[in-house]
Design a protein that fits this description.
Elements (H helix, E strand, L loop, with lengths): L4 H5 L8 H6 L10 H4 L3 H16 L11
The structure holds zinc ion.
Zinc ion (ZN) binds next to helix 1 and helix 4.
Length: 67
């Protein structure tokens, strides 16, 4: 068992599910590291591609600045 969220759910990261994407972002809008998210290498790569796509479509913020 890898503990990978996407492997376990048998799903693929997609920019269309921005709520799911959001789980893998820190409060500052950065991608959570694999050590913390436990996402496998393959899905981490897909995830970052999908997050970039979501950002370009303004579905996710680039970086969230603290006030
Ligand atoms: Zn995986």
């Amino acid at each position: 068992m890898t503990g990978c969220y996407f492997c376990e759910k048998k799903t693929e990261p997609t920019y269309k599910e921005s709520d799911t994407m959001r789980k893998f972002l820190t409060i500052r809008g950065k991608i959570v590291s694999r050590e913390k998210s436990r996402v496998c290498q393959w899905h981490q790569r897909k995830l970052s591609t999908e997050i970039k796509k979501a950002r370009s479509l303004m579905l996710l913020p680039y970086v969230v600045y603290e006030e």
